[in-house]
Amino acid sequence: MTQTALSINLNKIALIRNSRDTEYPSVTHHAKVCIDSGADGITVHPRPDQRHIRVSDCFDLAAMLDVEFNMEGNPFAAPMKSDRPGVTDYPGFIELVKEIKPAQCTLVPDNNSQLTSDHGFDLTVDGDRLKPIIEALQGIGTRVSLFMDPDLVQIELAKQMGTDRIELYTGPYAKAYDLNDNVDAVFEQFYRAAEKAFDLNIGLNAGHDLNLNNLTHFATLPQLLEVSIGHAMTVDAIEMGLTNAIRAYQKCLGK
Hints:
With 255 residues, this protein is an alpha/beta fold.
C-alpha cells in the first residue's frame, strides 16, 4: 500500500512574520520543527509580491533541508521589483526554481491578484507553453507536478505534456465535505482521477483545504503519493501545538 507523504506549506508562518518588520517567526526554524516532528517534506509558494514566502526564504530552506523541498508557483510569473526595504527582488518563478533546483516543482495557474490557488490548468490553453518549461525543469533534475482539477481529459493531456506528477486541487472536495453536500459524488470524481493517473503512470499529489476532518477519507484514494497542507496546519498548530498537529495529520494518513 502506498505511504502518502505529508509536506508542510510554510506560507502562513512567513505571512505572520511579514506582518511586522522582523525575522520572527523564523521560517527555517519552523521547517526544522516540522521535520523533527515527522513531516516528510516542506512546501513553499513564493508569489511575485512576496506577501508571505520571500526569495531569500527559498534559498535559506534549500540550504538546510534534508527532506523533499517542493516549490509551487505560476510558471509564467515575471520578475517583480520589491517595494519593501531589505527584501530581494523577485526574479521570476522559473528563474528562481532553476537557481535553487528543488526536488519537486509544482506548477500552478494562479495570478498576482488571487488570494490563493483556486483551479487547475486548462492544458488546451496552456499546454504548448508548459511543455518546454516541464522539460527544462526535468533537465535540472527537478520533478514536475501540474496543479489539476479532477478532469479525466485534462489528466490525459498532462500525460502528453510529459509531467511527472499531477496535484489534484481539492478545494471542491473540502467544500462538499464541510457542507455535507453531495460528498460521495464529488469524492468519486477524485477517485476516478486518481485511477486515471495510475493508468497513465503519472504520480498523484493533492492539496488545498485538506484538514483533520476531511483528510482521512480523502487519503483512501489509490496511489496517493503526497499531500501538502499549510493553512489548516497552521490553525491546528495554534490550538494543539505544531508537533501534535503534524502527528495528528500523519495519523490521518495511516502513520
